[in-house]
Amino acid sequence: LKIMENNNLEFLKKNLKFLGFGTSLNAALEAKVSERQESFKIGVSADFSARQKNGSLGKDKVNYELNFSRSSKPYNYSLDSIKVTLNDQTHNIFSYGKGNDVTAKEAYNLLRGASIHKKAILNRQMDNRVLASGEVGQMKEGSGEKIDSIWIKLDFERRNEQGNFSYKKFYPDHGFHLETELSRFPIKELENFQEKEMLLSSLGRGNTQNATLENGQPVFIEADPESKKIQFYDMDFRKLDVLPTQTQEMGR
After folding, report:
1. What is the mean pLDDT of the chain?
2. Percent of the chain residues topping a pLDDT of 70
3. 10 Å Cβ neighbour count for 211?
4. What is the pLDDT of residue 135?
């Protein structure tokens, strides 16, 4: 029994590390698991640097409430959900254990209105049945499952039965491909394989990423799959119009 408990504890610790909580919750986790309750919660907060609307650099405060429960196996706990609250105002509960769990940073990015890129098993029949109005580019014909990637963002106009925000989902046939879209613009980081991969990965997690134009100008970039575009900002966080590279634009 003790070995099972230890294995379960190690699994939970690894999971929290993967989700971006590091090792800071390990002591609280050990204490809670040793109490052997049916369920328990652990709370933690984080500050993220964030550009304010006036361009100044400020802080976003995020509270995380992690909810664990015990399964029918003796003392086998799992992370069920995390309630995430942004600046004591907007909150959402994210479910876990169904694959494609969002990390702590991705949950924050979703709450501030960004889109994130996730691998998903697409069951065409099921998607056609459950997709509600406002969800874009669903699979229309055929059946069966395939793994593909989708962009998701929270729909702040709609909540589901549990009171959480619904998702807007943008499938490949919505017509936004991050790498293709980025390649249209004169971005220095695209010339180096490693820097390009880091840029793609960061934008896919919903981050506002700094980059450099080929003329040396530093910029911030965000992916906006809903509008099928890359959004550029200057260092004061004012929107920038960056022209596509001429040759690539002509070949489109």
Report:
1. 85
2. 83
3. 21
4. 33
